[in-house]
Amino acid sequence: MHRRSGGRPPEKHSSSGPYAPPVPARELAVTSADGSRLHVEVHGPEDAPAVVLSHGWSCSTAFWAAQVRDLAADHRVIAYDQRGHGRSPAAVAHSTDALADDLEAVLEATLAPGEKVVIAGHSMGGMTVLAAAGRARFREHAVAVLLCSTGSSRLVDESLVVPLRAGRMRTRLTRKILGTRAPLGPVTPVARRILKYGTMGPGSAPHMVEACARIVHACPAAVRYAWSRVLDSLDLDGGVRELAVPTAVLVGTADRMTPPVHARALVAALPNCIGITELPGLGHMTPVEAPELVSAKIRELAATYVRFSQGDQVKEGA
């Protein structure tokens, strides 16, 4: 086997520690509406309450490693790679409709008819939930939602990645930075510092930064750019109003990518918001920066809504 000059190819995720992805109980390839193929992993007991995890821009299923490891002890955890990310091949279509199609395809392939599930979405994964909120299959299965570090519109205008006052100059520079076509290159000390500044809180531990850097740097530049164009023009405010299931919102107060103004707008517009959690000093990568807390939120939603729903189904079938 030939190695590239410069040594080993870069790791796509942590290989040890709390952010090393656990081995799934099974894997499957799911076909979306336009023929795109999606890599899906299922962890935990098959007869346990179900949870679906939808990751964000430039990430992969590895982003949820800590939640998968925690929840899979007593939940069926379904995680999938967004199209073009992780082990899902690149696709021709990049749109919020495609994100919704993909989530519906995953739900159909992994859940029994009428089976209820909690869906947790981080960043673009939360936007996926908003895009799918009015879809029939989403409404059939989703019984509660956790939206982590996400927003529904004005992402570039509200971003705090560029340390300038709001206005045309900040928006223009932000658009250039987030929409760059350039490869990110190897994970170096400088790269870690840049990623930490843009996406994580100042107190993030080095192993957290390392885990996020490996995942983000593994995303192909062309895929990252294609989805940056979608996020630039994002308008899912209508999807917020359609998300009728109980929905919890979570955000870090030091989030520069989707700052708390987005979370507060979601809370104001959601038909059935059950609370907001603002995490002092944390950045955009909340499932990595506060793994136990995010896992606990998902577990609480599953205990409250999935188990309750299953009880109702048993009564109806009695």
Characteristics:
318 residues; alpha/beta; 8-stranded mixed sheet; 13 helices; 42% helix; 15% strand
Description:
- The protein is an alpha/beta fold.
- 42% of the residues lie in helices and 15% in strands.
- The protein has an 8-stranded mixed sheet with strand order 1-2-4-3-5-6-7-8, sandwiched between helices.
- β3, α1 (65-71) and β4 (76-80) form a beta-alpha-beta unit.
- α1 packs across α13 and α7 packs across α8.
- The protein is globular and about 50 Å long.
- Residues 1-10 and 314-318 have low confidence and may be disordered.
Can I get a quick summary?
The chain has 318 residues and is α/β, with parallel strands linked by helices. It is built from 13 helices and 8 strands. Helices cover 42% and strands 15% of the residues.
Give a topology summary:
Blueprint: E1 26-31, E2 37-43, E3 50-54, H1 65-71, E4 76-80, H2 96-110, E5 117-122, H3 124-132, H4 136-141, E6 142-148, H5 155-158, H6 168-178, H7 189-199, H8 206-217, H9 221-232, H10 237-242, E7 247-252, H11 260-269, E8 273-279, H12 286-289, H13 291-317
Parallel strand pairs: 3-4, 3-5, 5-6, 6-7, 7-8
Antiparallel strand pairs: 1-2, 2-4
Helix pairs in contact: 1-13, 2-3, 7-8
